[in-house]
Each structure stands twice: as structure tokens, then as C-alpha cells.
Amino acid sequence: MKKIITVCKQFKVSILAMLMVMATSASVFASDTTEGEAFDPGAMITHHIGDDYIWHFFDGHYGTLYLPVILYTDQGLEIFSSSNFYDEHHNQVEYNGYKLEHGHIAALDGSHPLDFSITKNVASLFISAFLLLVVFFVVAKGYKNPKKAPKGIQSFFEPIIIFIRDEIAIPNIGEKQHKRFLPFLLTLFFFIWFNNLLGLMPGGANLTGNISVTFVLACIVLIITLFSTKKYYWQHIFATPGVPWPVMIILIPIELVGILTKPFSLMVRLFANITAGHIIILSLFSLIFIFESMAVAPVSVAFAIFMNFLELFVALLQAYVFTLLSAMYFGSAVEEAHH
Q: What global pTM score does this model have?
């Protein structure tokens, strides 16, 4: 009987999830298609996976958050709301000598102001940073009494932290050196994981699907790797033991290029996997509007829900892979010569 009740509850949850996704998708697509206008799935998908100066949650006066525009020009700082770029019908207009052009602010006089605006991705970055601080201040507070058993949010995150230490940091970096890198690896894992999950929420920003964000993360990994290198690391590149000198002429350039291709692979892997998941889910919803038939909706939404659950796994997997490979690069940098 208990099993039957549990199955029924799970079925109700699934139905509610499906209805929520359908309602969210209707709101999302309604905002992208005006009456009498042909639905353009490509433009809709590009809009939702890209960055923007506004954060749209749902239709209506209170459904859009207009973010601050911060420009540095020859006359100094110019700060104003992005709502000035839209009229009462939400059509784009020029304002104060500027206009929106392909998702960027362009000056009408041809100048190139420095853009420090709080865009949707930047706002999402602040939110995720705030959540990380709150969560781990709470977790850290729980360790003030070491004799007290973990409970609540502390008991959830402690096994993950121990896993990263024991299964990622120590095996790949070493018992002696892993403590230097563990704080960064933990920050890296939870930052990517939190933002992957936030990007799956209705109205969420695609932060880890932004190539600029993954580029910065990869650059940080590269800088830490290079500044942590020891003599053996460069000896292995420029004087690999047991390799003839004629072969080293070919091998050295390959090894030097490999220093850059490793973080490049980190950047592309995270960007491509997260962005691809969003594109697939949005494409499945687009089928309803492409075929203009509600008969397609149940199948489309069912596959979209399946992909959404799969993306929850991918969100965790990509955080794990990025952290694991970063630990491997750090381990190769601090590796001692074998005698």
C-alpha cells in the first residue's frame, strides 16, 4: 500500500511538473511572437540563450526587470536604466545618442564607449555568488562545534566536499600538495554546478553557456597551472627523458601548444554542453508553434521534461569534469621527478 501511495505521489508530481513547464513555455514563446507575425525558432532560441540588458520572466508590466546600463565615455560615466531603450510597446528606440544593435550598445556618433553594464548574465553571476556565500557560511558555522554531528544543509554538502577532496584533489595532485589547490577546486565545482542549475530554472540566465565566462574560468586554471609549475614540468616539455633530439624538434612545439589546448578544451566543453542542452529543450518547445498544433504538445513537452531531467545530470557532470581536469593539470604542474 505504501508503495502504491508513493507511486501516486510521484505521478502527481510529474503531472504538476509537466503543467508548470507547459505554462512556462507558453509564457516564454508568447513574448517572442506578436499577433500575425511568423514564429522564428532560430531568433527565439538565440534570444533566450544569449545575454541581454533586460531580464524577462513573464509577460506584463512587472514581468521584465530592466537592468542598469553603465557606460564609460570621454565625458565620464553614464548610468541609466535599460528601459530607456524601449517604448510603451516594447519596441527598441534610441536614447541619449545610443542604440541597441545585435545585443550590444552602439553609439550613434561612431564612438566606442566602454560597457560595464549589469546584464542578465552579470546579475545572475551576482546572485550565484551571493547564494554560494550564504550556503557555505552556514556550512562553516556548523563546524564551530566539531563534536556536533552534521545536520541540515551541512550534512548535504559535507559528502560532496569530502568526495572532491578524496576522489579528485588527492589522487590527481597528491597528498602533500592538494591542500594548496583544494579551496579553488571546491569554489570551481560549486560555482559551475550552482550556475548550471540556475540556468535550468524558468527565466534563468545561461551564464555557464556564455563563452566569455568559460573563457575566464579556463584562463584562471591556466594561470594557476603556470604559476605552480616546477622544474620537472618544463624539463618534461623541453627535454623529455628518453626521446632523441631529432624527435624533440617536433615534440617541443606540440607540447607548448598543448599547454594552451588543455584550458581551451575546458572552455569549449562546458560552453558547448550547457548551451546544447538549452537549445534542445527550446527546440522541442518550438515544435508546438512550428506545427501549430496542440496535438504535438504532449509529445514535445514529455521529451522536454526528459531532457530537463537529463540536464540536471549534465549540470553536475560538467562541474565534476571541469574540476577533475583542472586537478589533473595542477597535478602535472607540481609533479616531482621520478627517480
A: 0.84
